[in-house]
Design brief:
Layout (H helix, E strand, L loop, with lengths): L5 E10 L2 E11 L4 E5 L6 H8 L7 E6 L2 E2 L10 E4 L11 H11 L4 H14 L15 H12 L6 E5 L7 H17 L3 E5 L3 H7 L2 E6 L2 E7 H5 L4 E5 L6 H8 L4 E6 L4 E6 L7 H14 L6 E4 L3 H8 L6
Parallel strand pairs: 3-8, 3-9, 6-7, 7-8
Antiparallel strand pairs: 1-2, 1-4, 4-5, 9-10, 11-13, 11-14, 12-13
Helix pairs in contact: 2-3
Length: 315
Amino acid sequence: MSTPAISIRNVSKTFGKQKALDDVSFDIPSGAVFGLLGPNGAGKTTLFSIIANFLKASTGTITVLGTSVDRIGDLRGRLTILPQDALFQSNVAVREQLEFMAQLNGMTKPQAAEETTRVLTMVGLLDAQKKNARSLSHGMTKRLGIAQAFMGQPEVIVLDEPTAGLDPVNAAGVRNLINDIKRKANATLIISSHHLAEIQELCAAVAILDHGKLVENRTIAEITQSTGHVRFTFGRRLGDAEMSIMKAQPNVGEITVDTQDEYTVELRPTASQTSEQMISALVSELAKNGLVPRSVKEGASLEEKFLEVTGNKRN
């Protein structure tokens, strides 16, 4: 078995009488794209802060690539973190800031210049290299943060809410960027997000925190496995008439709106049809009525399972 990228053992953190983390233990496999989830106040940001050595754990240990985070300096260039509200210096050009960060990570000045060009090109910001970083839009600032996080050859990259506050177009752009980068980078990515469909798209496994405790730690496939549910993505929100068409199809039970364009359909099993046959029949009937899904995935939504394990059932 390979050594985990991050090993978290019996970590607790208290602030006065409040326990933000309560005896949390789990591993993040090397090379994984891993999601960290939880309601507000669950302890996600506290855990990220301990991984980055911004905070000290009250009890327990965390190692990154076999090195204790107490020796965070030994991980220079190997571990990078994009905080949720990362800020850049005002009145300093984008390029100048990134080159300075690269040199702090041990690069020579020519290496820093070359690497800055690479990551700005990667995130589509080369044309903005001379701009004041504080003059960038929120979406551009998020992309700049991702550029900073992927500088050099980090082995572990932590992205805290990388699409928070973005409009749907910019959020989709950042997700596409992360998807593209994860295919090329030989690194472990840990992503926190309140957008659960986003985590389901990007990650292979997740850990879920609730009130400081670990309540789930499995692969997405294991968590969402359900032969009685099918998720359809249509690329747009369906109207009332179109929803009625779906509900009128044979073997269709409850329909849940997961996101603006994604719907989970409960299929009622029959003795004469397999799940594959029911899905095929439903897709054919929808197509006859002009409803052609962009994607069809068997299994429950991560959001539904998240609500179950955190005790927040949908109304």
